[in-house]
């Protein structure tokens, strides 16, 4: 029997699970080309070039990795080349066995999939197998999608063919099970992956053992697992162990669990104040417990309603299930939120929502998640991931190409299912569950860039409608293809037992799709195609079932996001409007994200306006005050951090918009400002439940002691005398002499005239200022005199001038506008001009470079020094929109070197904000990492702080 569905045909036959076609009689899929041309191999359609990859640690200049003469397409960035070469090429460096071309890497993986797909009956003919190979190769070659890292590490090599990055374990209330948990977790950590589990089956410390003693409780066993994770990490892993620990809200020990990390955070503060090194990865941080896991409380609808109504909630014994104590729900909810406010843990997982979308409830409840909270399914299971680069589907007319996106999803989900046929797993139980339920995790990256490029604000109805439509289309096509695969090679083994529940969840997805309210024609087209795909999914699934119990998640996409040259990871908004770009000939520069000019064009701005706005962004890092930008368009350029950052609830609203169209959940941390209150945390967690999220975590800026940037080594003796004299340090005022050098500068800002008098110490250094504005009243004159006096006294007490510059530059108030100063052409206020002028006159070049302040001559010298020599590898587009971040004009060669250039986009943003944001330094190359979902990723070498 042959049926035509979607873009191609499929043939049905007897459903033998994972057996070659000669045994099962299956015929397989009929495929059609999307991106490739018959008779032309994808490799023949791109220009290739040889590159040298040399990666260093900026802290000490040592070479971390070196491989010369690698082959990549010209279109791939230097950053993607470095990461793929160092992370994914196999074989010993310097030997003939070492991979040296992207062709070898792609062929190693793709051909393994083609061989397995052919053997297990996925393809209708040799021609279909060739189409599959060419399409997969083309998409990987052009950075349309990527498998998760374990695929690139292991597939096609002599090592075990592990393809999954996400694992869920289980532990029962026996010592044998607890010790086995330690063992299984250790094996997974050793392989560089992470795992999560729920400890709620373990008896609480308020219950008795069969021997008559009192149980230890799950928190005590967490200590051993935490120490194991820390030991394995320090034994040679390149990142922290990725680990999730979950406890149900009705467990009698839940309050102790909630306070574990908050209590340790207080201990860290005490030890830090006593002189111990408690920074991230510091020498003494390992003595603190519970630092190697993410903690989450699994809350029920019953508990959340009790919070809403202000009633009591029962805590239940683990063995009998009877209520052994009552607690005030609001008080417990406040305790959870207070702990999260103090140290970012615990997060929330919403149990009833999770299990209401469970396709296999007859096989067991969903009790836990992987470390990043996007994969949620049965205990002792795993999920292999792949993510699509959404920007690759942005058409020339500024619309999203939904049809090509849908056809691409067909190939990717097929490949992901094939991988389960040959994959190895860390434990027998995980392998059995995964082969029986075939959980997949297709997702995407670059959503934030896509929304900006199409003129949508991240926190807007239009942005959420487009995101929801794309997510619905992705999952709808995935399950439709899964139903086709079930017709060709059989449904998953657990389907028959769970068929009614699986069909119910499919109907819930389809109903949620119908509820999407579109705002624009493009959004409507995506939603309409998704509606068609869900209808076909239901029709085919009713006949043949589905091949996969789960299909989609939204993962962090850290390393693979850099591999695909994505501006944004997962569901995240743009991190900032400027980025740190490495150049082909070495060096780096700060450029404006190319999404910005695309967004401006889609909003209707002319080329001259786009150029002016982009130039402004290159100098300021934001669009506030950009010439010609209409106020209603500023929200389109809101980012995760910076001058205009997205409100925390904006992130929650975006998560709620796409959650109904995901089999799993979303890896994302909602960042909150340092000024956020405990009540704000409560509101986020409560609205997450109301919005139908499955999981949610927050991070309040500076809530942890460990800081990402070090100010220098600590000098401390190893032995401290029993009694030390108490020394009280006070600031000392350094007064100016009677005669001192000074200068007076006249200025005009927005038509307002004034004078700046600046006095210096004889040995250099600003010591006082006086400001007079023309035609001012006595009140304003008095305010300016008082302001000048306070700044002068602060300078004499040792407050650095650069501190004042970072605080007062970019302040906005009238008068503002054009100036008569060739070095500062536009000022957002009088104070903005004054402190930029003072910085130019009194700060070294390096300090000003960190603040983004240059003279007109220095800017010209930068361009001449770096690009005036006629190099062949000049990045003209980056030159047009960027400002070099590390160059130094010859005129300032004698200036003292007091700083260092930024090494990553995260550090560039820190310089713009004038503060160091909370993010760890990469343990491989020392570069400051940036957020990727609920993890961190290094754009220098691709390392991640969690599961990839």
Provide a descriptive summary of the structure in words.
- The chain has 948 residues and is α/β, with parallel strands linked by helices.
- It has a domain at 742-905.
- Helix content is 39%, strand content 15%.
- The strands form 8 sheets. Strands 6, 7, 8, 9, 10, 13, 14, 15, 18 and 19 form a 10-stranded mixed β-sheet that branches. A 3-stranded antiparallel β-sheet has the order 1-2-3.
- The longest helix is centred in the middle third of the chain and has 29 residues, at 461-489.
- Residues 1-25, 234-239, 707-728 and 869-899 have low confidence and may be disordered.
- One of its GO terms (biological process) is DNA biosynthetic process.
- It comes from Amycolatopsis antarctica.
- Belongs to the ribonucleoside diphosphate reductase class-2 family.
- Residues 164-699 form the Ribonucleotide reductase large subunit C-terminal domain.
- Residues 1-12 have a biased composition (Polar residues).
């Amino acid at each position: 029997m042959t049926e035509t569905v979607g873009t191609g045909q499929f043939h049905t036959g007897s459903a033998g699970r994972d057996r070659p076609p000669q045994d099962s009689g299956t015929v397989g899929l009929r495929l059609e080309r999307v991106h490739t041309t018959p008779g032309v191999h994808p490799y023949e359609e791109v220009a290739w070039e040889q590159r040298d990859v040399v990666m260093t640690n900026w802290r000490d200049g040592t070479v971390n990795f070196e491989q010369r003469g690698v082959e990549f397409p010209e279109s791939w960035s230097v950053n993607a080349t470095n990461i793929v070469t160092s992370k994914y090429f196999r074989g010993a460096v310097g030997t003939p066995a070492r991979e040296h071309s992207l062709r070898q890497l792609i062929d190693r993986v793709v051909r393994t999939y083609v061989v397995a797909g052919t053997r297990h009956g996925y393809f209708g003919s040799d021609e279909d197998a060739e189409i599959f190979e060419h399409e997969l190769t083309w998409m990987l070659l052009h950075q349309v999608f990527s498998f998760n890292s374990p695929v690139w590490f292991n597939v096609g090599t002599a090592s075990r063919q592990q393809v999954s990055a996400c694992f869920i374990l289980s532990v029962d209330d026996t010592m044998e099970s607890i010790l086995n948990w330690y063992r299984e977790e250790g094996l997974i950590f050793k392989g560089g992956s992470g795992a999560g589990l729920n400890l709620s089956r373990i008896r609480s410390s308020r219950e008795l053992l069969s021997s008559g003693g009192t149980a230890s409780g799950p928190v005590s066993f967490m200590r051993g697992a935490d120490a194991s994770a820390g030991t394995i990490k320090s034994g040679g892993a390149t990142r922290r162990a990725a680990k999730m620990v979950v406890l149900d809200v009705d467990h009698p020990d839940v309050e102790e669990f909630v306070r574990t990390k908050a209590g340790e955070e207080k201990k860290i503060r005490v030890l830090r104040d006593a002189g111990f090194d408690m920074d991230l990865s510091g020498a003494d941080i390992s003595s603190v417990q519970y630092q190697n896991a993410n903690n989450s409380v699994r809350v029920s609808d019953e508990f959340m309603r009790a919070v809403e109504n202000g009633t009591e909630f029962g805590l239940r014994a683990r063995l009998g299930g009877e209520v052994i104590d009552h607690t005030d729900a609001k008080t417990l909810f406040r305790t959870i939120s207070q702990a999260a406010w103090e140290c970012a843990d615990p997060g929330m997982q919403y149990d009833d929502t999770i299990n209401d979308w469970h396709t296999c409830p007859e096989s067991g409840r969903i009790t836990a998640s992987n470390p990043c909270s996007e994969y949620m399914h049965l205990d002792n299971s795993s999920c292999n991931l792949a993510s699509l680069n959404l920007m690759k589907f942005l058409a020339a007319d500024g619309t999203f190409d939904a049809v090509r996106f849908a056809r691409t999803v067909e190939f990717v989900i097929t490949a992901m299912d094939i991988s389960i046929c040959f994959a190895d797993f860390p434990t027998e139980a995980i392998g059995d569950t995964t082969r029986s339920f075939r959980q997949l995790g297709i997702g995407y990256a670059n959503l934030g860039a896509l929304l900006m490029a199409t003129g949508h604000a991240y926190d807007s109805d239009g942005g959420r409608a487009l995101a929801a439509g794309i997510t619905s289309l992705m999952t709808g096509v995935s399950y439709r293809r899964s139903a086709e695969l079930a017709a060709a090679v059989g449904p998953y083994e657990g389907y028959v037992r769970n068929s009614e529940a699986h069909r119910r969840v499919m109907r819930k997805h389809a109903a949620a799709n119908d509820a999407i309210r579109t705002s624009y024609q493009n959004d409507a087209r995506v939603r309409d195609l998704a509606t068609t795909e869900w209808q076909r999914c239901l029709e085919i699934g009713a006949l043949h079932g589905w091949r996969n119990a789960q299909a989609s998640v939204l993962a962090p996409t850290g390393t693979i996001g850099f591999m695909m040259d994505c501006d944004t990871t997962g569901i995240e908004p743009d991190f900032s409007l400027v980025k740190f770009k490495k150049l082909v000939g070495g060096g780096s520069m700060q450029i404006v994200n190319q999404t910005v000019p695309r967004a401006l064009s889609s909003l209707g701005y002319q080329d001259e306006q786009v150029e002016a706005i982009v130039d402004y962004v290159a100098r300021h890092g934001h669009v506030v005050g950009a010439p010609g930008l209409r106020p209603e368009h500023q929200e389109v350029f809101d980012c995760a951090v910076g001058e205009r950052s997205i409100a925390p609830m904006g992130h929650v609203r975006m998560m709620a918009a796409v959650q109904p169209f995901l089999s799993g959940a979303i890896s994302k941390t909602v960042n909150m400002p340092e000024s956020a209150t405990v009540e704000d945390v409560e509101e986020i967690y409560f609205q997450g439940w109301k919005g139908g999220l499955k999981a949610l975590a927050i991070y309040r800026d500076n809530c942890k002691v460990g800081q990402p940037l070090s100010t220098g080594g600590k000098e401390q003796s190893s032995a401290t005398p029993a009694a030390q004299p108490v020394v009280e340090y006070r600031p000392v005022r350094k007064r100016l002499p009677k005669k001192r050098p000074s200068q007076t500068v006249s200025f005009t800002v927005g038509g307002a005239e004034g004078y700046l008098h600046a006095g210096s110490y004889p040995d250099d250094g600003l010591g006082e200022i006086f400001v007079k504005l023309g035609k001012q009243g006595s009140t304003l004159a008095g305010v300016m005199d008082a302001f000048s006096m306070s700044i002068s006294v602060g300078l004499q007490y040792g407050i650095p001038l650069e501190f004042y510059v970072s605080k007062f530059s970019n302040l906005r108030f009238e008068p503002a506008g054009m100036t008569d100063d060739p070095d500062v052409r536009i000022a957002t206020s009088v104070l903005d001009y004054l402190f930029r002028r003072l910085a130019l006159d009194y700060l070294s070049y390096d300090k000003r470079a960190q603040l983004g302040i240059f003279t007109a001559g220095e800017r010209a010298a930068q361009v001449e020094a770096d690009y005036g020599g006629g190099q062949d590898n000049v990045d003209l587009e980056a030159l047009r929109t960027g400002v070099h971040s590390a160059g130094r004009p010859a005129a300032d060669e004698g200036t003292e070197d007091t700083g260092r250039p930024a090494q990553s986009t995260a550090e560039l943003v820190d310089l713009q904000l004038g503060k160091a944001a909370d993010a760890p330094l990469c343990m491989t190359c020392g570069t400051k990492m940036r957020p990727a979902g609920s993890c961190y990723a290094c754009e220098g070498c691709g390392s991640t702080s969690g599961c990839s």
